[in-house]
Design brief:
Layout (H helix, E strand, L loop, with lengths): L2 H4 L43 E9 L5 E11 L1
Antiparallel strand pairs: 1-2
Length: 75
């Protein structure tokens, strides 16, 4: 993975507009006031939680070519 690929662009929560080349592949499981049309950032649920993103490279047909996980932080 290149250094550029290791960095994530900032994405505001509760938005369907993602940066170029990025898409949400699983809907957020939130409901009510926290229902999201796209990306929903992690919420703490208390202290001691770690957060990560699963990153997949896919071809035009959707076939997964490679995947990795990136730690986002700890709260």
């Amino acid at each position: 993975m290149t250094q550029e690929a290791a960095n994530f662009p900032a994405v505001p929560g509760m938005t369907a507009k993602m940066p170029k080349g990025v898409r949400v592949v699983a809907a957020a499981k939130s409901t009510g006031d926290f229902a999201s049309p796209g990306y929903l950032p992690p919420c703490s649920g208390g202290r001691g939680n770690s957060y990560e993103a699963q990153i997949k490279a896919v071809d035009a047909s959707g076939k997964v070519l490679a995947k990795t996980r990136k730690k986002l932080g700890r709260y």
